[in-house]
Amino acid sequence: MEAMQQAGAHDGLIHAFVAALAEGTEAKQALQELGAPLAVQHFVGATLDIAENGTTAEVCASFFFGREELIPGFFGVLLESLKANGMAIDRLEYYLERHMEVDAEHHGPMAKALLEDLCGNCEERYNEAQVSAKRSLQARIVLWDGAMQAL
Fold first, then answer.
1. Is residue 61 within 8 Å of 133, Cβ to Cβ?
2. How far is CA 51 from CA 22, 47, 48, 55, in A?
3. Is the CB of residue 2 less than 8 Å from the CB of residue 94?
4. pLDDT of the chain along its 151 residues, tens only?
5. Would you tell me the crossing angle of helices 123-150 and 108-119 to the nearest 10 degrees?
6. What torsion, rounded to 10 degrees, do the Cα atoms 125, 128, 129, 132 define?
7. Residue 36, by phi and psi: left (phi above 0), alpha (psi -120 to 50) or beta?
8. Could you give the CA distance from residue 14 to residue 16 in angstroms, rounded to a whole number?
9. CB 60 within 8 A of CB 115
10. From residue 110, how far is each of 47, 51, 55 by CA, in Å?
11. What are phi and psi of 65, to 5 degrees?
């Protein structure tokens, strides 16, 4: 939150969302009632659907391919862009660098090993994991496209 504030980003919707969750409102309902962008609603909904209804292998594949494997590269490009444009946002830079390090060196390898262990030699589990990973990546594309349209 401090990085967002330092960058001048509006964080009111996030605070309202967290408050709604604290009051017991379901996440999807809270986002809809708060008028969150449709791309955000879609992404959060897809993430929660996989987390709440997927098999362990599906959840692991979704988070590995849709986050741990993907985010370090994306954040690296974002960080380079910030620096190239002379945007000195030290808190955001620290967050991005730390996130890249943890995902690339710890979370990513652990998630990959877990996924391989969960699927074992079962082709059906690998197929389910692949479908889940694709769904997660498609939801992220919708999120990023929505962010680009908002700019």
1. yes
2. 20, 6, 5, 8
3. no
4. 888 888 888 889 999 999 999 999 999 999 999 999 999 999 999 999 999 999 999 999 999 999 999 989 989 998 898 888 887 788 889 989 999 999 899 999 999 999 999 999 999 999 999 999 999 999 999 999 999 998 8
5. 140
6. -160
7. beta
8. 5
9. yes
10. 20, 18, 18
11. -75, -30
Q: For residue 109, which of 54, 140, 72, 139 has the smallest C-alpha distance?
A: 72
Return the residue matching tokens 């990546």.
137
Give the closest residue to 72 by CA, choosing from 39, 108, 37.
108
Please count the helices (runs of H) and the strands (runs of E) in the chain: 9, 0
Residues 6+ apart with CB under 8 A from 56: 118
Which tokens hold the place of 128?
Answer: 């389910």
Q: Where are the domains of the chain?
A: 1-36, 37-150
Give one word for 8, left, alpha or beta, with left for phi > 0 and alpha for psi -120 to 50.
left
